[in-house]
Amino acid sequence: MKKSLFISLFIFFGLINGSNLLSQSISVKQITSGISNSINNNSSILITGLIGSGISTRYDDRIQESYPGKILSENQAKLGDYWGIGGQFIILGSLKFGSNEFNSTTSAIIGNALCTYGLKFISGRIRPDGSNRRSFPSGHTSSSFLAATIAHDLYGSKVSVPAYLLAGLTGVSRIHDNKHYLSDVIFGASLGIALGRGFSQNTNNKILQKIDDGGIKIKINNFKKDQRIYFFWSL
Prior knowledge:
By secondary structure, this protein is mainly α. The protein has one domain (about 25-235). About 70% of the residues lie in helices and about 5% in strands. It contains eight helices and two strands. A hairpin with a 2-residue loop joins strand 1 and strand 2 (about 225-235). The longest helix is centred in the C-terminal third of the chain and has 28 residues, at about 180-210. The radius of gyration is 18 Å and the shape is globular.
């Protein structure tokens, strides 16, 4: 079911954006630069998440013994699971193919996957259900909070607030499904937020670097009734 949803999202958004031309390629340098920026400029978020995750390990076993399958309804749990994977691609599909925002979001998704699964392999933590050693951190949670953070940068609170609520639901659903501990979810959330902010900051810095001395660039973000205008200039 999840695999078919994943494929359907790619096909759907490919049809929507297929007629547009790619204006800027996505490079390894762009991804590594975004990850580096996320770590350097958002270390407080990662440290806070790590501390919160460490504290919550005291309660991991107790929670998993008491609450799997009892926190959410079946439909709520499924929605959280689907959003954990599909949310980031829904945000990506709302952007013009080849635009700076599209390339930055794509790079952020790839960067998040590399960081999340890299940590999974390094930590080797066994999942609560014992299925494998890929428990820490929660990939569904990091992806959903990445999507919400990017949505906030692109569209403001009218889109990001529901996205963050869905991200929270995703984290709870992973505990409900007995796939992750609370500590996995907490650090997954902080990782997604840090990377979402880091890649957005990295893109904005590159926009500023491309402006000639004395130049000015105006970016108008028009998403339904949430219009925002950004001014970039160089001194």
